[in-house]
TrEMBL record:
GO biological process: malate metabolic process; tricarboxylic acid cycle
Family: Belongs to the LDH/MDH superfamily. MDH type 1 family.
Listed name of the protein: Malate dehydrogenase
Positions that bind NAD(+): G33, A34, A35, G36, G37, I38, G39, D59, N119, I142, S143, N144, M254
Molecular functions (GO terms): L-malate dehydrogenase (NAD+) activity
UniProt lineage: Eukaryota, Viridiplantae, Streptophyta, Embryophyta, Tracheophyta
EC number: 1.1.1.37
Annotated active site: H202
Keyword Isomerase: no
Keyword NAD in record: yes
Organism, scientific name: Lolium multiflorum (Italian ryegrass)
Pfam families the UniProt entry points to: Ldh_1_C, Ldh_1_N
Catalyses which reaction(s): (S)-malate + NAD(+) = oxaloacetate + NADH + H(+)
Entry's Gene Ontology cellular component terms: mitochondrion
Amino acid sequence: MRPSAMRSAAQLLRRRSYSSASGQPERKVAILGAAGGIGQPLALLMKLNPLVSSLSLYDIAATPGVAADVSHINSPALVKGFMGDDQLAEALEGADLVIIPAGVPRKPGMTRDDLFNINAGIVKNLCTAIAKYCPNALINMISNPVNSTVPIAAEVFKKAGTYDEKKLFGVTTLDVVRARTFYAGKANVPVTGVNVPVVGGHAGITILPLFSQATPSTNALSSEDIKALTKRTQEGGTEVVEAKAGKGSATLSMAYAGAVFGDACLKGLNGVPDIVECSYVQSTITELPFFASKVRLGKNGVEEVLGLGELSAFEKEGLESLKGELKSSIDKGIAFANAS
Ligand SMILES: NC(=O)c1ccc[n+]([C@@H]2O[C@H](COP(=O)([O-])OP(=O)(O)OC[C@H]3O[C@@H](n4cnc5c(N)ncnc54)[C@H](O)[C@@H]3O)[C@@H](O)[C@H]2O)c1
Ligand SMILES: O=C(O)C[C@H](O)C(=O)O
């Protein structure tokens, strides 16, 4: 066979198969930690997503039951459950998108960083397997502390020689979801049309909602209102942890946010134009190597990391104050990944 003919045969083999029913490309989504508080409702929502043709549910326990349950829903995605290390390879092989809510959640009185000792190891092991079995997949990291688990994943992929900064995302959508809800309530505008960019990271003061850029804009909010909205958004996770009183952290709103972000990633992969979401990604828009901001999603993941736009004096101050904490969380993740 001539080299050009061999090339086109190889291209044909690589070409993605298309589902005959929908005309959409076939997409495999894997959820790691699928039997957990976030994992189960996220599995439900991804089963309902028409862009998903195959849904792989992995956990260290209880996935056969979750998969059997979700699989009875009469939507197109084919559901399979996988349990334990022996089945991780099969769970991951061929995945286009891997969503990771594996790991322990907070209890009252804890910070997200208090989860580092357990979750860092879990994320490292899962990412090692991802590098081996689906190195081209997009990764949506939900496991906390996101400010550190994303840098850990990046280091694992670098060591394995598979790192592509366009494909690694820390999921900060819940901060946007909260900022939209709280803003709509305070400004008394219909929540469905509201958007608020949230930048920085995903813990305490590193969560920086940009209410000066909120749409629709309003004159109804005083600077005290904006301060209170900012604090509530930054402490939204703690509000839920305290209300759950020892029974974990946000699961249902997080599953919703994870499903929104996962759907945006799939749309980007499928070539839908103008898909923009906030996410914590490798970035050069500040001096920090990872930073959450608006990101344009495309066929290869991150197409463009968008700048911060014009900030109010209050937001500029918030930006400067968050840099120290965010940097030390990033450094901690990088050091962990390289030490062990
Ligand atoms: N990014 C965000 O905005 C956000 C929001 C909410 C929660 N979280 C984080 O998500 C994580 C999960 O929260 P949850 O409420 O679902 O916790 P959970 O304890 O209910 O569920 C976690 C699941 O992970 C599984 N798991 C543990 N080790 C695993 C491994 N090695 N491989 C695969 N699965 C494994 C557990 O068996 C469990 O089913 C926590 O770290 C939490 O802090 C992040
Ligand atoms: O607050 C937590 O610990 C979970 C999550 O990060 C959240 O924002 O709800």
